[in-house]
Amino acid sequence: MATSDRTCPSATCTPGNQLLGVKGADGYVRHLRTALTIDADFVETASELGKPEARMRFASTCATSGCAQWTGTRCGVIDHVIEHLEQVKVPLAPSIPPCPIRGSCRWYDQTGETACRACSLVVTDQSAIAAE
Ligand code: SF4
Questions:
Q1: What is the pLDDT of residues 11-22, one digit of tens each?
Q2: What percent of the chain has pLDDT over 90?
Q3: What are the two backbone dihedrals, phi and then psi, of residue 123, each rounded to the nearest 5 degrees?
Q4: 82 lines ligand 1 (CB under 6 A)
């Protein structure tokens, strides 16, 4: 699998990945000040309440061409997110959140602060939302 020196901010809940943020009661993700590396115990406990990716955000090394979201030159996820928010007229956050991975984040690298202003609205696993 191809990898890069960039970090994916919408990864799976897998041992070795990092906990990046937790969704609050208002639906917005709160980024942690320090990303925490998760282990198998964390994954097991977090999975007891359903898919962790519906309630938390995780980070891992960007897999580039090893990921279905890679367009060939960039990550398509944040482009879709920003386009969707524009379509449904959801405003971006007025400021950027503190973030422990900004120095290597794939989305920030591609789209700058606009990505960060959309980031707290991103839920990696949308299946629960789609089922509502
Ligand atoms: S888009 Fe911005 S706020 Fe979101 S993970 Fe990347 S650097 Fe952090």
A1: 999 999 999 999
A2: 89
A3: -115, 120
A4: no
Cβ-in-10-Å burial (0-12, 13-18, 19+) of 72 comes to exposed
**Tally of CA atoms within 13 A in the half-sphere of 125 that contains its CB:** 16
CA of 50 to the centre of ligand 1 (A): 24
pLDDT, tens digit, 9 for 90 and up, residues 26-51: 999 999 999 999 999 999 999 999 99
Query: Atom 1, ligand 1: which residue's CA is nearest?
Result: 116
DSSP-derived secondary structure letter, 64 = G
- pLDDT per position as a tens digit, 62-106: 999 999 999 999 999 999 999 999 999 999 999 999 999 999 999
- C-alpha 45 to ligand 1 mean position (Å): 26
Does the beta carbon of 75 lie inside 6 Å of ligand 1?
no
Place of tokens 């700058």: 112
For the chain, give every domain's residue range. Answer: 7-123
Distances in Å between the Cα of 104 and the Cα atoms of 43, 85, 128 are 24, 24, 29
**13 CA → ligand 1 middle, Å:** 17
